[in-house]
Specification:
mainly alpha; three-stranded antiparallel beta sheet; 6 strands; binds s-citryldethia Coenzyme A
């Protein structure tokens, strides 16, 4: 980051001395006011619950322009990566900062492929869960449990340890997500198959069985790979910030990523794709397109807590570029599967049209986000609704790792420890 010629002066109406705060510039996007010395100089904290105006770190990984609806991974537009690259190329880019050349690509794909199996005893962890446990509960447990098997790669201050932990997590997440699914449906776990692509291998571990050969459908394989690319990273969102804060204590990468999985589960965040599909199915059950007006009225009614799930975003105040790509992927998959008349897809497009013309949404700059169409395409592929957020976690693991690694590699990083505005009882004595 670069020191700006511009300075911020903080003046107080109570006669306290004003202070000058440095302003820093990044490569692109908003400048930041450096308040690190504010408490020492004024005895006061800033106040920003929800971090609406706070940059918690500097990062060179992902850039979002919310007004333009732009998303760049290491400077490359998401539209071009989704078109010209695959998910493992995107993983390499997020982790190392550049797209791989042919040899780097082949080596990286081979490295990941050779780490896709999990320790055989991981299966015993699943036996402890009820068969109807939510897959995110299972996944949170399984990812945390990985740290029990890899004592050779848990020293976060060792760059080699961080590298092997990154490969293990990227490689094993599909295996763990598929195991959580198979356990829920009572089918045998499928071992990874090294001659398949990352997405093809996941499809086979999910929908294959030991009784017959599984043929990967190339359209579904490409669609799933694109879904992984669209979810790979997204700046300092809630789960990434969780991973950074958790990792800042020096805990092992598996524990930090497990914290990210737990945070992503929430319906306001990664759980929104499950909630959005459930919302569409509810409207469909109640009468479909004819009931959209009634539903939107409920969303606009402040007394109802009904939200249009899959809409709105803290940063995007324009169309989420991922939502556009997801809608296109949805179209491709539905066409391939002969489901082009899928009533839920028609309902989603009608709901989007009505919402985008309604003043309530226009005024609040609420647009579809990545979660609005992702449920429809995953459902068409055969992925159960309860597993949607698990797929999101699978794809976002590389982003969490890249962001964690960037923080740990910064010699200036400190353990995260926010302060508070105390509004409780002043000191008092027990009678
Ligand atoms: C993800 O941060 C990321 O980058 C996340 C993510 C990623 O890749 O990591 O992009 C993934 O989490 C996408 C978002 C998925 N969540 C949802 O789709 C859930 C529904 N969306 C909302 O919960 C909400 O839009 C948030 C949580 C996404 C953003 O909320 P903010 O920025 O805190 O905004 P807000 O809640 O203060 O809303 C501002 C206004 C409010 O109305 P007023 O009080 O001003 O009258 O907009 C309204 C809100 O009530 N509003 C909605 C709405 N979202 C916001 N009203 C109806 N439906 C919605 N979806």
């Amino acid at each position: 980051m670069k020191l700006s010629d511009n300075k911020a002066t903080l003046a107080f109406s109570n006669g306290s001395p004003s202070i000058e705060l440095p302003v820093y510039q990044g490569a692109v996007g908003p400048d930041v006011i450096d308040i690190r010395k504010l408490y020492a100089q004024t005895g006061m904290f800033t106040y920003d619950p929800g971090f609406l105006s706070t940059a918690a770190c500097q990062s060179a990984i992902t850039y979002i322009d919310g007004d333009k609806g732009e998303l760049l991974y290491r400077g490359y537009p998401i539209e071009q990566l989704a078109e010209k690259c695959d998910y493992l190329d995107t993983c390499y880019l997020l982790l190392k900062g550049e797209l791989p050349d042919a040899k780097q690509r082949a080596d990286f794909h081979k490295l990941v492929t050779n780490h896709t199996m999990v320790h055989e005893q991981m299966q015993l962890f699943l036996r402890g869960f009820r068969r109807d446990a939510h897959p995110m509960a299972v996944l949170t447990g399984l990812v945390g449990a990985l740290s029990a098997f890899y004592h050779d790669s848990t020293d976060v201050h060792n760059a080699e340890h961080r590298e092997i932990a990154a490969i293990r997590l990227i490689a094993k997440m599909p295996t763990l997500v598929a195991m959580a699914y198979k356990y829920g449906v009572g089918q045998p776990f499928m071992y990874p198959k090294n001659d398949l692509s990352y997405a093809g291998n996941f499809l086979r571990m999910m929908f294959g069985n030991p009784c017959e050969e599984y043929q990967v459908n190339p359209v579904l394989e490409k669609a799933l790979d694109r879904i992984f690319i669209l979810h790979a990273d997204h700046e300092q969102n809630a789960s990434t910030s969780t991973v950074r804060l958790c990792g800042s204590s020096g805990t092992n990468p598996f524990a930090a990523i497990a914290a990210g999985v737990a945070c992503l589960w929430g319906p306001a965040h990664g759980g929104a794709n499950e909630a959005a599909l459930n919302m569409l199915e509810d409207i469909q059950r109640q009468g479909g397109v004819a009931k959209i007006g009634e539903f939107v009225a409920k969303v606009k009614d402040k007394n109802s807590s009904v939200k249009l799930m899959g809409f709105g975003h803290r940063v995007y105040k324009n169309y989420d570029p991922r939502a556009k790509l997801m809608q296109q992927t949805c179209d491709d998959v539905l066409q391939e599967l002969g489901l082009q008349n899928d009533p839920l897809f028609a309902l989603a497009k009608a709901l989007e049209k009505i919402a985008l013309e309604d003043d309530y949404f226009v005024q609040r700059k609420l647009y579809p986000n990545v979660d609005f169409y992702s449920g429809i395409v995953q459902r068409a592929i055969g992925i159960p609704v309860s597993l949607f957020t698990g797929i999101f976690a699978l794809a976002r693991t590389v982003g969490w790792i890249a962001q964690l690694d960037e923080m740990l590699a910064d010699p200036e990083y400190k353990i995260g420890r926010p302060r508070q505005l105390y509004t409780g009882s002043p000191r008092r004595d027990v009678a």
